Amino acid sequence: MPQAGFLQDWLRRATAVDWFLLALRIVVLAVVGTGFVAGLLHPRYGREEWFSFLAFGLTIGAIYALIALGYTMVYGILRMVNFAHGDVFMFGAYAACFSLIACNRAGILNAYPVISFTIAVIVCIAVSAGIAILGERIAYRPFRRGRSLAPLISTLGLSFVLEYSARGMFGAQNKSFPTMPGIDGIVAFAGFSVPRVQLVVVAAAVLTMIVLTLIVMRTRIGTAMRAVAEDKDAATLMGINVDRVIVFTFALGGALAGIAGLLYGLVFKQISFFMGFFLGVKGFGAAVLGGIGNIPGAMLGGYALGLVESLGPAAFLEGLGVTAPYQLRDAIAYTMLVMVLIFRPRGLLGERLSTARA
Amino acid sequence: MASDLAQGVARRPIALPGGLRPAVNVTISVAVVCAFTVLVGLFGQFSDRAMVVGVLDIGHSLMLAAALAGGAVLARRQRMASVLIVALISGAVAGGLVQALVVVARWANLRWMLVSLTPVTLNRVGFLLPDDQAALVLAASGACAALVGAGLVLCGPIPRRIVLGALGGVVCAGLLRELIRGILGGLGGVDDWGFTYDGLLPAGAAVSAAIGALVTIRPGAARYAQLPPRVKLGARLLCLLVLLALPALTNDFVAQVMMLVCLYTLMGLGLNIELGLAGLVDLGFVAFFAVGAYTVGLLTADATGAGGHLTFFAALPFSIAFAALAGFLFGLPVLKVRGDYLAIATLGLGEIIRVLVLSDMLKPELGGAQGIVNIPKPALFGFVLSSPTRLFYMTAIMAAAAGYIAWRLQHSGLGRRWLAVREDEDVAQALGINLVGVKLSAYTMGAGFAGLAGGIFAGMVGSVFPQSFQLLVSVNVLAILVVGGIGSLPGVIIGAAALIGAPEVLRDLGEYRYLIYGIVVIAVVRLKPDGLSPKAIRQREAL
Amino acid sequence: MTTRLRRAVLRGFAVTCLATTILAGHPRAETVGPVTDDVGVVKIPKGQPILIAALLVLSGPDLSLGVDASRGAEIAFDDHKNMLVGHPIKYLPEDGQCSVEGGQTGATRIAANKQVVGVIGTACSSESRGGSPILWNAGMPQAVTSATAPALTAADRPMGLQGIVRFVYNDLNAAAAAVKYAQSLKVTKAATLHDGSLYAEELATAFAKQFKAAGGTIVAAEAISPSDTDLRPVLTRIGTSQPELLFAPIFTGASAYLTRQEKEVPGMAKVPVLGTDAVLSPSFLEAAGDSAIGYRLTGIDNDPKLMGSRYGDFLAKYKTKFGEDPIGGFHGNGYDAALAMMTAIEKVAKTDAAGDTYIGRKALRDALMATTDLDGITGKLSCDKFGDCGASHFAVFEYTSGDPSSFKIGVNPKHVYP
Hints:
The complex is a heterotrimer.
Chain A: H1 2-13, H2 16-41, H3 47-78, H4 85-106, H5 113-140, H6 149-170, E1 175-176, E2 186-189, E3 192-195, H7 196-218, H8 220-230, H9 232-237, H10 242-268, E4 270-271, H11 276-290, H12 295-317, H13 329-343
Antiparallel strand pairs in A: 1-4, 2-3
Helix pairs in contact in A: 2-12, 3-7, 3-8, 3-10, 3-11, 3-12, 4-5, 4-6, 4-10, 4-11, 5-6, 5-10, 7-8, 7-10, 8-10, 11-12, 11-13, 12-13
Chain B: H1 2-9, H2 20-39, H3 42-46, E1 50-52, E2 56-57, H4 58-77, H5 83-108, H6 119-125, H7 131-154, H8 157-175, H9 177-186, E3 195-196, E4 199-200, H10 202-217, H11 221-226, H12 229-249, H13 252-277, H14 285-300, H15 312-334, H16 339-358, H17 363-366, E5 379-380, E6 383-384, H18 388-410, H19 413-423, H20 425-430, H21 435-461, H22 471-484, H23 489-505, H24 513-527, H25 536-542
Antiparallel strand pairs in B: 1-2, 3-4, 5-6
Helix pairs in contact in B: 2-4, 2-5, 4-5, 4-7, 5-6, 5-7, 8-10, 13-18, 13-21, 13-22, 13-23, 14-15, 14-16, 14-21, 15-21, 19-21, 22-23
Chain C: H1 2-23, E1 31-32, E2 35-36, E3 41-44, E4 50-56, H2 63-79, E5 83-84, E6 87-95, H3 100-112, E7 116-120, H4 125-137, E8 142-144, E9 164-166, H5 171-184, E10 189-194, H6 198-213, E11 217-223, H7 232-240, E12 245-247, H8 252-262, E13 273-275, H9 282-288, E14 296-300, H10 311-322, H11 331-348, E15 350-351, E16 357-360, H12 361-369, E17 374-376, E18 379-381, E19 394-398, E20 414-417
Parallel strand pairs in C: 4-6, 4-7, 7-8, 8-9, 10-11, 10-12, 12-13, 13-14
Antiparallel strand pairs in C: 1-2, 3-16, 5-6, 14-19, 15-16, 17-18, 19-20
Helix pairs in contact in C: 2-11, 3-4, 5-6, 8-9, 11-12
């Protein structure tokens, strides 16, 4: 009877805090459950609306997942939160935006959309990876052996610098993202309709993740990354240049963030200098949700966060009779983040962390 | 493939003679910094504001500062006279490079992308001269600045101090001219000889330079050091009194800025208990600030339904209590979470609170976007604290009281337990310290301090709007601690003055406040990892 | 111990004494030169400039509100040859950051300069919430250019807001104009959407109230947060209640998402959206691109036929001075606010034989409040007893192109109603 033994054990050891947590857990589950049932019974939404929510959720989830991957790889090796990662994403979006505009000015955007898109991908990857490497130099490397707070603060500072540099360089106004030919319009199948750009984005994100998996699993530098993430000292003894691996990890994370920026621009068609920070925080949340340091976990966490954000207001706030539920979307995302941190800090798929700091 | 990429990332030596490489690096760095100021628009905004009227604008001062620093860096690497020539050439090349970049930018016409590269700005870089003359002028001024920079390193400490002090004096007077005008005006001084509305006049610049130089060489320092401690204490008290009297002697703007500094000091003291003493990273401090502000708002303003008609001072204890309660309830589940996760969890809390107070859902209770208005000004025995000066004194007294409490706490048994937990949780637990209880007490008390600050804020502003409770507040408080020195009480005041007071005084910076804020934060964390006023214990630990 | 305590008490006493003497300071002059005033008198010595400050948002996403008004004011000063009652005008714009704290600090900074006579602005209502009481205490009247919240000129406004004289419409009028337009479209079911900003929330509420009073039904009252990028779920929700019009007084960023994504949501594709002059700026076109075409908004009717005759000249001057067409919809209000301020100063200023000028603060505020039949750019302006002087006619505009450089009120967006 291991089950009963566990229960007895728990009862014996439980402190007031544990009881409080148990009560909190029950309350949260009850609220979500009630809302969910009531929401499903609510006649407002039909099959088609629910499908739309699902599609929106997967699209934004793909973007969260790409951002989360950058966090998870860096955190897995260094155990440090990089607050400037969201701004790397923002710079990627601007780079993609300007390369598409440049293509348009050169008159090749509509004539050769594939070439233009390739140019945009290359430019945004290069810019984001470059900024990520620069960030590592300025705000990380000096503190790698220091106390944990210094890099946190310095990346916060770096985040300010990047944001307000972008503001100064590209203007304070929201920037319109150029329309790519061929991805507009709506695809209809089996009675459902979904904007084509969402399909493109989800497909591109999946493709990127496959490439990432190949890099991490099949290349020498990927193997080195995994070795460093496993045990830094042993990796050093095996002749792996840890510094180089860390730089590469940053570059790889930056490149993924850059692609996320491009996809974001394609979906939302509007970018601003300020969009990076909170998307970054949510991306970190997604990484934690999946289990930090865990690459499939980050992907799963991203999609899960996107779906909760998209379905949450309709699925349970609606049922609870809340006024203007969409205003609370961010609150739902953050509440979920806090709950995961409290109740399942190791994430959905379990965390994988380096044994020691670099 | 990928490993090739990684190899490319690694530094490859550039084939240059050894002595030349630092010079090339410095030259390029100086040019890049100058280009950056133009790209982000910093230069454009300040090139028409005078540092010294008719002599130098603020935009070019930035560039000269970069060249000066470049010269100094060169000279620090190679401490010999020949480096002067290297610096001279390096500065001149950097200046020429800047003008070359201007020509390129004009030709490439990238304004569709880089909005700051307006034709006017580009022309201003070269003082509106034709390109060849502009290049000459820029090269000459760059060379001079680099030469001065290198010379300062090579020369003795006393001339260095004098020159740096004089430069600092002019820069301070130029940037802070409104504040100084206000102070002089408040003291009944005549300021027309030194300043106009456009900036510092040459006469004013000369005086500021002299004052700056005097301050740095401190002619009476040796004699002062020999004075008996009692007199020294008196002198310090006198300084404090003058500082405290400043708002009343000058104007309300000074009072307002000092009041904000006190408010953030108060919050910094609270976070210092959480972070500095117990080691809890909190990025959601604004949540408790908001709870405090809304408590005062709801209890004093008569517009809302919940309102009792309490006076400000009767409501203030509730602010502290409710904020502490919120801290307790939130801390209970969250404090088991480890360091970095705690930062994210608390950040989430701050955002949740902001979204909730803004929401239509709670609008009947909290006013939604319309906030709570008509909060009466604090009044004590019929004496209404309406002006910023009076509010400053109130806040200063409260901050002083809070500082005293924080100081006592730090040296109490609880404070030692906090320190033990911060240093090593496992050891602390082994010593029989109740981890959760100790952490929770720190978190609750910190939240209480934030609640007090929030309550004062509500009384100061006279209204509470959700827009006031941005993440930026939390970041500010955290940065204050880091910049001032974590765990150090004087550090909190210094940090607040540097990060809250200075940007308010330098409001002319406008959009660029946060850019400079970010740079300062990175620089302080890098150059002074223990803060500007590190805690004494840390210094002892280092030995 | 006791000596230490005694010393501490003595020290505290000394500080308190000092503080009280200081606090009792700042006496207000009643009579200076030939002028007697209840609040105070500003003396401008011969040859010195007359200081007019401005408290407007000059940075951040809403800067087009404040910068446009500020430019209008500068043109008004130019038209006056930058001279007023024999003194040069010195214009001191201050950034209010479109927030309560920003308004408060900016106002404190203005109020610290006792030579400032009057203030142009604010641009945002929240700036006035924070700043006006301070300016009121300093005796500086405000000529507001684009803060439209009804509370600022409500009959029961508190003391601190009584220095406000508004040269722009009141939100209640804007909402009324939107309701009128809805009625002209024969709409009976409308939805509202706001972004949690002070302005949008107030306008959405006012619209709902007046629309219901006019016999319509509000089928959905929704809200988003300003940082929201994906409005499709909320639009789906609104779509399920089948409105015939969506009134969305939100700002440029969110409006651009709205106009793009609305077309992708099945239930909303055919529902017309009505914005407000919050999106009457090229930055909306910058953000929305071609999807802006067809977007409608209520705004001040800047039709030269309706406006004061000088609007055409004004536009030409604006273009010459700033190199571009007006960047927002409040340049006329800025001009008029400055004009009213100058007119009021001329009315009350007294210059003595030595060439020194004296201006009574209360007299100036009263003169500004008593503005009647001022021939402004936005029309003939007369203030009511609560300080509402906006004579703006409302119109509905529609964007015809997504190119920011084509922004020109009356052409893009073009005038569609009335």
